[in-house]
């Protein structure tokens, strides 16, 4: 039997048409999905970039401002006036330990701007003095933890005594400290002092001791001083060693004269603060 070729061709065409149409639709759908995904990814990237850029800008501005803060501006930033409005307690031994650990880590990153003034770690202030509330006007202070003989060493410089020789490093440490213990930076700024680092007074820096020795108050009158910088018979040389000028009974407040060791010629302004 003869078969019409036109019929055969028509039937063949009809059989092929569904299989050729389906891949085209699938391909178009895939392109649509891919385009949609790319648009979503682009939107996410742009959104993230905007917020990251904003954050980076804010951090950069904040750090730039901190590089130029004066002492007064840092006191306002740390809310020191509010911190000192009420009675403040002294730092615990654990807190001092954390602060000293922070400083050692900080000093490794900032070797040029700060250093420890001594390597000695043997002196234990707690055997001689203890913190106490010295009154509303004085605030915190130190008192004798036991009877102290005349001429006995009451305090000496150790590796807890640190110095900053540029204002930027000083600022950076205060902001790092504030993140660890809020308002502790206020105490450091209250306790630190300008010190001559050579006999000629050419070199100078900001010194502070990371221990309770900071709590010693200055005497109202010269005759009230019972702890003085230097050694008995060698009062002309301070060298951050302090001795008892007379016999001090247990419980008696330890008072010194800040003028013995605070630089008479240099100020925080000279450090850009």
Can you summarize this structure?
It contains 6 helices and 11 strands. The chain has helices at 5-66, 71-77, 80-83, 93-109, 167-180, 184-191; strands spanning 114-116, 129-133, 140-144, 153-156, 161-164, 193-196, 204-209, 217-218, 227-229, 241-244, 255-256. It is elongated, with a radius of gyration of 35 Å.
Order of helices and strands: HHHHEEEEEHHEEEEEE
The mean pLDDT is: 82
In spatial order, strands of the major sheet run: 1-5-7-6
Helix proportion range = 40-55%
**Number of continuous helical runs:** 6
Structure overview:
The chain is of the alpha+beta class and 273 residues long. 41% of the residues lie in helices and 15% in strands. Strands 1-5-7-6 form a four-stranded antiparallel β-sheet. Strand 6 and strand 7 (204-209) form a beta hairpin. Helix 4 (93-109) packs across helix 5 and helix 5 (167-180) packs antiparallel against helix 6. The longest helix is centred in the first third of the chain and has 62 residues, at 5-66. The chain starts with a helix and ends in a 17-residue tail after the last strand. Residues 7-16 and 52-61 have low confidence and may be disordered.
What distinguishing features does this structure have?
three-stranded antiparallel sheet; 15% strand; four-stranded antiparallel sheet; 6 helices; alpha+beta; single chain; 273 residues
Topology (SSEs and partners):
Elements lengths: L4 H62 L4 H7 L2 H4 L9 H17 L4 E3 L12 E5 L6 E5 L8 E4 L4 E4 L2 H14 L3 H8 L1 E4 L7 E6 L7 E2 L8 E3 L11 E4 L10 E2 L17
Parallel strand pairs: 8-11
Antiparallel strand pairs: 1-5, 2-3, 4-10, 5-7, 6-7, 9-10
């Amino acid at each position: 039997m003869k078969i019409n070729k036109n019929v055969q061709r028509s039937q063949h065409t009809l059989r092929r048409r569904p299989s050729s149409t389906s891949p085209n639709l699938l391909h178009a759908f895939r392109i649509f999905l891919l385009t949609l995904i790319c648009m979503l990814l682009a939107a996410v990237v742009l959104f993230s970039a905007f917020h990251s850029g904003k954050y980076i800008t804010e951090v950069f501005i904040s750090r730039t401002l901190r590089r130029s803060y004066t002492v007064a501006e840092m006191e306002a930033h740390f809310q020191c006036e509010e911190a000192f409005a009420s009675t403040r307690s002294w730092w615990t031994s654990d807190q001092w330990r954390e602060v000293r650990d922070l400083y050692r880590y900080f000093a490794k990153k900032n070797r040029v701007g700060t250093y420890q003034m001594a390597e000695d770690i043997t002196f234990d202030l707690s055997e001689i003095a203890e913190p106490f509330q010295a009154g509303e006007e004085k605030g915190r202070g130190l008192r004798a933890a036991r009877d102290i003989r005349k001429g006995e060493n009451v305090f000496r410089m150790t590796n807890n005594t640190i110095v900053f020789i540029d204002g930027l490093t000083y600022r950076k440490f205060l902001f790092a400290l504030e993140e660890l213990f809020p308002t502790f930076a206020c105490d450091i700024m209250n306790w630190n002092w300008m010190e001559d680092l050579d006999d000629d007074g050419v070199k100078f820096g900001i010194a502070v001791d990371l221990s309770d020795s900071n709590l010693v108050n200055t005497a109202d009158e010269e005759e009230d001083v019972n702890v003085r910088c230097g050694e008995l018979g060698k009062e002309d040389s301070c060298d951050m060693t302090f001795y008892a000028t007379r016999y001090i009974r247990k419980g008696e407040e330890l008072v010194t004269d800040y003028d013995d060791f605070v630089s008479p010629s240099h100020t925080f302004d000279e450090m850009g603060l």
